[in-house]
Design brief:
It comes from Paracoccus aminophilus JCM 7686. With 190 residues, this protein is of the alpha/beta class. The chain has six helices and six strands, in the order βααβαβααβαββ. It has a single domain, classed as 3-Layer(aba) Sandwich (Rossmann fold), CATH 3.40.50.1240.
């Protein structure tokens, strides 16, 4: 059995840069109309899960797209922002379009679908992300609703489920869904 409390994880809604396949990393762009709709869907899912969840802490990444999503999801309820929940820093790849990176850096983009995050020049890499995610999770004292980012959400799941970091590429993450990790097991609500 895992040592972490129940987690209800959400990726921020679609952003303008997501729609353009532009890599955000630590930069930001606003939610699209679809992104706001996805956040409203997450709000409904959270309301439906509330009888199972009970009292819960609410957190969001300090980045604008996650805060904007959290404001919709939590509908006036207070939440804390935490810098440890921000997206992985992708260094020199920040702001680039994915299709351009694949062409300009074939040696990095030839392997598994998400391995490139661990090789981005000037980036944080998985070890740095794992360290800050563990520090955040170690401080939790009870169940938590968390709005974060795609790679960070995968890392939180891997740590909470005690899986090797090499498996994060196998983990689906959907915008508009709630990913529950309870007693070391994952369940997605859509």
């Amino acid at each position: 059995m895992t040592r972490f409390p129940d987690l209800y994880l959400m990726r921020h809604g679609q952003t303008e840069w997501n729609a353009l396949e532009r890599m955000q990393g630590r930069l930001d762009s606003p939610l699209t109309a679809l992104g706001r709709k996805q956040a409203r869907r997450q709000a409904a899912l959270v309301r439906n899960l509330h009888p199972q969840i009970g009292e819960v802490a609410r957190y969001a990444s300090a980045q604008g797209r996650a805060r904007q999503t959290a404001e919709i999801v939590f509908a006036g309820e207070s939440f804390a922002t935490d810098h440890r929940l921000v997206e992985i820093d992708i260094g020199d790849f920040t702001g680039a379009r994915m299709q351009d990176l694949v062409v300009s850096h074939p040696q990095i983009f030839h392997g598994a679908r998400l391995d490139w995050y661990d090789h981005a020049p000037g980036g944080e890499h998985f070890s740095g992300l794992e360290t800050r995610v563990r520090a955040f999770l170690d401080e939790l004292t009870g169940p938590a609703l968390i709005v974060t980012h795609g790679i960070t959400l995968r890392m939180i799941r891997a740590v909470a489920m005690e899986l090797p970091i090499s498996r994060i590429g196998e983990m689906p993450v959907r915008q508009g869904a709630v990913h529950a990790v309870r007693q070391g097991r994952h369940q997605m609500f859509e």
